[in-house]
Amino acid sequence: MLDGSGNYGVDAEQRNRGVELSLFGEPLSGLRLLGGSTWTEAELRGTVGGGNDGNQAVGVPEFQFNVGADWDVPGVPGLSLNGLLLRTGGQYVDTANDYGIPAWTRVDLGARYKTRLDQRAVTFNAIVENVADENYWASANGGYLTQGAPRTFKVSATVDF
Asked: Which domain holds residue 67?
């Protein structure tokens, strides 16, 4: 928190109340889902002079939502396609709640292939993060903003020894 002279210090309380829900399952054979939601009320209390009491805490979105799916492709043993949807609510960047960053959504898509090479289990992964190449601020805290990554391609291989 900034005190009356513009210095950072521990000059208030932050009360967090909310609900978090998670879900995992395989509703159909070969289709796995994982998701979660969080609703948080992060309220400032006991601020210097009471001027920011009741405001939303810096860098705490009111909601976050994510859902991921992993699907085994029929007829192609070892191949799975996957996706992830992330949604994060807007956040304030200052204790007065004068400035904020908007909510954002990101979609990631990927594939995984499991096989055996030379008697060893091998998994190949490929993913495109931020498929739509959205520009967004991922978070706000500590007096700075974190920019969301642009469209990113990643590939990897894992070998069991």
From this structure: 13-159
Can you give the pLDDT at residue 82?
Answer: 99
Q: Is-contact 16 40, C-beta < 8 A?
A: yes
6 in any annotated domain: no
Task: Please state, in angstroms and rounded to a whole number, the distance separating the CA atoms of residues 81 and 100.
Answer: 36
110 located within any domain: yes
Tens digits of residue pLDDT in 72-97: 999 999 999 999 999 999 999 999 99
What 3-state DSSP class applies to 48?
helix
Q: Domain for residue 7, yes or no?
A: no
Q: Which amino acid does the sequence have at 12?
A: A
Residue 128 to residue 151: CA distance in whole angstroms: 7
In the block, which residue shows the tokens 């956040």? 91
Determine contact, residues 93/58, Cβ cutoff 8 Å: yes
26-52 pLDDT per residue, tens: 999 999 999 999 999 999 999 988 999
Number of structural domains found in the chain: 1
Q: Are 114 and 141 in contact (CB under 8 A)?
A: no
Whole-model pTM: value is: 0.86
